[in-house]
Amino acid sequence: MQKKIEAFNKNGYWIEKDFFSFKELKEMFLLFYDISLSMHKKFLSRSSKFKELNEIKYDKSGIKTLDKILMEIFRKDKKLIGEIYDTVSYTSTFLRFLSNEKIEKLTRKLLELPNNSSLYGFTNRVRIDPPKDQRRTYGWHQEVFYTLPKSKYLQTWCPIIRNTTIKNGTIQICPGSHKEKIVKQEWRDLKDRATQIIIDTNIVNKYRPLDLEMKVGDLLFFNGHLFHRSGQNITDNEIRFSMVGMWNTVGIKDFRAPIPKFSFRGLSPREYYIDYFKS
Fold this sequence. Notes:
Radius of gyration: 20 Å
CATH architecture: Sandwich
CATH class: Mainly Beta
Distance between the termini: 66 Å
Shape: globular
């Protein structure tokens, strides 16, 4: 364990190989297939041409079928991909996958926290990045302004469903850059794009970027100050699935939990109430 902590402190990251089991990964695949197929039937075709959940397998053929479903949804309405993001994030399967006790234990060790320290998960999501879609592709950034202010935390990242490669846009990092602490950066709000908080190019150029090609099952832990970004998915029809999230330490002075706010895509509870009793 001490070697992991030393490598994490020196380089700003650590990759834990074969962290997740095939069973866990299969459950995540079936979760995505079920939700995506349901979305396809709801918005594109009730009589779907795709296999039902009980007929699909977690193999190359099954993954390609999932790609086809999601690409048809993406072409129909890009916002529906966001709805799949949000649906997955509160399912029992995802929460069970995310709340793996091994993640807790290793996070505490890498942050050098007491064994029973409480951790707060923030913006834990599985990203879906179709080919050539850069709406949520970020430039070089640190996570410090994307998470809870003044917090002590680390970030996790890993492939889901399939391996991540340079071609499908795996994560890129600048090893050792976390030692810069908080560097000069620019906040950009761009139309139809995710907020960009970009590090000054002159600072990034001091480092040699590294593409981390990773296999499903591997889990990356990295310091919140580490320079990183997603690559570009330049494949023709291969979606990149990746789980991202942050683990914040509850026990520090400046920790304040944010107030969850939900917006309803369909009827709000009040609208449902009014509609139900209007007669």
